[in-house]
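Human: For the file, kindly provide a plain-text protein record giving the amino acid sequence and the backbone structure tokens, at your earliest convenience.
Assistant:
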Amino acid sequence: MRAKPFILGLAVLAAVVGFAPGAAAASATAPTPVPPHRGLGHLDFVTQHGLGVRVAGWIIDPSTSQPVIAHIWSDGAAAGSGQAAVSRPDVGQAYPSYGPNHGFDFSVRVTPGLHTICLYLNQAGPVAGQPPIDCKSVTVRHEPFGAFDGTQPTGSGVLVSGWAIDPDTAAAIDVHVYIDGVIAGGIVASAFRPDVANVYPAYGTHHGFVHTFPASPGSHEVCIYAINAGAGAGNPLLGCKRT
């Protein structure tokens, strides 16, 4: 008698080769979309400008040498955009195949408070799963701010120095000086302070003050207030020091 041929059923064959009906369909599902390229670039600075922030830097789309749009997001929400076509010789030197015209410098409106400002190549930003090119934190104020740098006794009184800015204006503002709780006078914070301008370039270079106020010999408590020139409320204390 001839032997019957040995025929494996589909179930047995699947067990032997590790294949199950429907496996081919499952393996054919679409791959996970790749997020858009985040591009090349940098936020050089993010500083308060009026009631918003000024952003400056550069951005390149690796797929083209042409200028593109820089998209700015604040705390995960689109805040504004601007063309990145300003000449940046340093960028052109670092990326010669793309040329120098990839800089940007513009302002966007944000609410008062602490914000995380991010630069994106794609308008959809994080909504499209795109990572940011660069991010920086900034605090936006409506009231004046500044610093009471120091005080020291002189032959005729006390010398005070510092700086003050009101976010609502680039013009110099007043500061009022109190000695032992009594107003000694007011001065305009209009002295040249390039160090302050380096940190807050939107407001110019003249926001410092250095002045001597009459006072009797001995120790005194000196307090300085920045006088509001815009929409904010109150005249904030810049600090108190004792001579």
